[in-house]
Amino acid sequence: MAGVWALLAFVGVIVVWNAVFKRNIGEAMIVGFLAVCGFVLVAGTEHGGSGWPAIQEAVLESMQEEVTFAGLAFVFMSYVLTRTPVLDKLIDLLNSVLGRLRGGPVYTATVAGGIFGAIAHVGAAVTAAVGSVTVPWMKRSGVKPELAATVVAGGAGMGVSFPFSATMFILVGGLAAQGVMRPDEIVRPLAMAGLWCLGYRLVLAYFLVRRNGIDPLAPEDRVPFGLSLRNGWTSLLLFLPILVPLLLTRGPLAGALGDYSAVGDVLKKPVELADGTLLAAQPYTMPDVISLITWIPVLMIALVLFLGRKHLPRTAAGWWRTIGGAAPSFGVIGVTIVAAFSASNLLGDLGLASQLQSVLAGLDAPGWIMAIAIGVIIVAIAIPLTASATMAAVGPVAVVALANAGIPAPVAAAAVLIFASTEGASPPSGAPIYVAAGIARVDPVKTFLPLLKYYCLPILGMGVLIAVGALPV
To answer: Does residue 321 form part of some domain?
Structure first.
């Protein structure tokens, strides 16, 4: 059970170093990673490998993660935006329309997360697309940066809680191969479960708006719509960096590009589930070729440099000072992401998923107890792993265990996916947390407790209620 103990040590060390010793999250993540390294050096990897090569590979892989690049790119994008009037004009325009609504940007971020999640399905991409506009808008409207980052990161899970994500297909593929249920049986229950989760987030938005005293903009602070449109229509181009990658990866244009480039002629590696079930190799699609989380910040930076060119430095010395101003945020975000993903890789090498799977397979209790226990286990696995990796590791086993306790398999599958959707709100390793923190230019640790309190644990509870039938799907 070295993986389980390493996970507990990882989280415990981070909490103590950050909360008790009052050190920054970057240091805390490094110390937590070193604690996991200690387990790897003593116990070795799950497959008998030695410690040092596993550690080196884990660090190298974390530095090559696209989320590492995206987190830093969004820090730079956010910083450059503040040096130009481009975003101010867009926010003036948005406030002209929704500024009279109390908490307008908070509700917009929540609903947009649901809409984009149902289209893109990748948590970090949902956070990137929605947060690029709504986080600065929330901050301008008086919302604290940490709350803005929390709301956007908390919506990332809707990419999993709506059909038809890759995570869903991994789960139902394994269940179909075992004859537990047909793939089409999951669609309606999961869609209903996703709507329950969206409904909860809207209720939460109402609560947060009132608790934090977020008021409508005063009439004198709202620019008339006609004037804001004339002055800032070019700022609407900021939606292009979101729309262009989206159109190239989803819909008819993406299909035509995929056919022209023969992307689908190449097959991915087959996915092997923890129980040995081998899912058939699937063809590559345009989302595999064009990464939303990579191209949104790249295109956003390029567009901002163009639109705000009159307000940006024109000399090398000026740019050196500009980049230097963003350096402190680069350091904290970069170190935190690398340490978090390195530790996650090592926890996988220690066999965390298989160890928790063995615990899960041995459970035998009434349905409601099984739902709580399985929910907790899946949430624990989703801390270091992605939702897709979690489903590959324990998804089918979890559904079968719930089905054996008397819960219909499609309902159980929907509940298990809701449990896994907490990956984006599970500190300290959730990738959307660092994307949101980079956009908001805030210490990620300030979002940890709110994410647990407002998103992770309540969504866990909703999964349990769905499993036992209290929330019909």
So the answer is: yes
